[in-house]
Amino acid sequence: MAKRLNEVSKLVDPDKLYSIKDAASLVKQTAKAKFDESVEIHVRLGIDPKQSDQIVRGTILLPNGIGKTRKVAVIAKGEKQLEAKDAGADNFGSTELVEEISKGWLDFDVLVATPDSMKDLSKVAKILGPKGLMPNPKAGTVTFDIKETVKALKKGRVEYKNDSYGIIHSSVGKASFEQEKLAENITAFVEAVIKSKPSAAKGQYVKSISISSTMGPGIYIDHNQKM
User: Fold this and answer.
1) What is the pLDDT of residues 20-77, one digit of tens each?
2) What's the pLDDT score for residue 33?
3) What is the pLDDT of residue 119?
4) Could you tell me which residues are beta bridge partners of residue 60?
5) Which of 55, 93, 94, 104 is 20 to 30 A from 181 (CA-CA)?
6) Where does a domain end: 154, 178, 203?
7) Residue 86 maps to which CATH number?
8) Range of the domain at 76
9) Cβ(149)–Cβ(143) under 8 Å?
10) Are 196 and 139 in contact (CB under 8 A)?
11) The pLDDT value given to residue 14
């Protein structure tokens, strides 16, 4: 693996800022694993992540999806469960599903809940929270609009939030994507993050942006340059 990484790293100039289009082409060239590697983006922000009014968080429906169908579970009551079923949710239920979670069942990638179901989820908050699975209004996963939310998540809506170092990490597709589609996803993601700039953030907002395949080297992007 180290030998392969050394070889593909020679394709990348670590001191160069690539256009989004060129970076998308290069990340495909550096993805040499035997599986379809994910393409990940890392955005380093000039914020103070310890300040609550500088947290950067949002969601975006990437134009070309992320190349993976995520398992979506829904906690809801009555007719909202039917909405979940019709929208293609993998699992749906009410208190009985919460009970399953309390016993260790976590066979889903995203959990959506209606506002009137959140009190039921409080008993499993300590299970869901550390794994980043607790529904949150800011992430659009606490909503009565179950139908559209489930459909969007299935199509590739992703949530982003800075970590404790002020960096956002997210998947923006697969190495098997066409260059143009990867570039479109990267552009849409970067634009969404820029639009999410907190008013309290001062100075340079975006410090650096890089992309990489799962097993590949980082490729730095000039985000001021058009695709």
Assistant:
1) 999 999 999 998 888 999 999 999 999 999 999 999 999 898 999 988 888 999 999 9
2) 83
3) 94
4) 158
5) 55
6) 154
7) 3.40.50.790
8) 72-154
9) yes
10) no
11) 87
Name, in order, each residue with C-beta under 8 angstroms of 43's C-beta and a sequence gap of 6 or more.
167, 168, 190, 193, 206, 208, 209
Q: Region 92-96: what's the mean pLDDT?
A: 95
| Listed residue (4, 22, 21) closest to 13, CA to CA | 22
Whether 5 shows a pLDDT value over 90: the answer reads no
Do you know the residue count of the chain?
A: 227
Q: What's the first-to-final CA gap in the chain, in angstroms?
A: 32
Residue 168 pairs in a beta bridge with 43
- Structural domains counted in the chain: 2
110-137 per-position pLDDT tens digit:
999 999 999 999 999 999 999 989 999 9
What is the 3-state secondary structure of the chain? CHHHHHHHHCCCCCCCCECHHHHHHHHHHCCCCCCCCEEEEEEEECCCCCCHHHCCEEEEECCCCCCCCCCEEEECCCHHHHHHHHHCCCEEECHHHHHHHHCCCCCCCEEEECHHHHHHHHHHHHHHHHHCCCCCHHHCCECCCHHHHHHHHHHCEEEEECCCCCEEEEEEEECCCCHHHHHHHHHHHHHHHHHCCCCCCCCCCEEEEEEEECCCCCEEECCCCCC
CA distance 108 to 43: 26
**How far, in Å, CA of 149 to CA of 176, rounded?**
27
- pLDDT tens for 171-182 read 999 999 999 999
The domain boundary, picked from 104, 132, 154, lies at: 154
Which CATH number is 168's domain given? 3.30.190.20
